[in-house]
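Researcher: Please translate sequence to structure tokens.
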Amino acid sequence: MKKMMMVLMVILFVAAGNGQSFKIGIGGGLVNFTGPAGFTDEYPKGIGYGMEPMINLKGKLGLPVFPLDLTASINYIILGSEGKGNANPPIIVNAHSVDISSSILQFGVGAEYSLIPGPLPIKPYISFDILVNNFGETTSKYDWESNSIPDSEFKTDGFTRTGIALGAGVDLKTPVIDLNANVKYHLHNLIGKEDGEDTVSSLSLGVMVLFSVL
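Model: Translation complete:
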């Protein structure tokens, strides 16, 4: 977090010295996980993550000559699912229910290339981001229907992976703020995989409000 703040401070300093624009934004959206099966299949075949909420913070540095904006972002994805499971052979109709929760904290740097250069009120763009994904600790809470088995909770450690995101969006400029809508395809763990680890992918849809700082 400290390194990210230092990067943003350097960007602000450089922008101020060169007459460039700098904007900060806050927003949110939804992330739909598309793979692997262990992430998306319903419990007990998988974890059962599907459409999950996301919170975004972004800084955007506009270059005066090129139709290119440099970006730095922090994204927080809240993960959760519920399901029912049983033993094999079955104990009763539903032996237990489970509540699974976790999160992904992303730190990203990237660029947005404007498809229509010039000071227009509507600016469509394509984007590319490099993301450091901190997969948080996963908590699984089990509620057993058999009174002879106490409820239980298990935790698995988090891990960090590096990935990318390819996207497209549009900025709507107003005299006071900018409104943004975007869609991105994420590959969360391209770098740093362990042996046998499948690629985690998702599709996100977000909206954001941006304010001019410089």
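Researcher: Any highlights?
Model: The helical segments are 2-18, 37-40.
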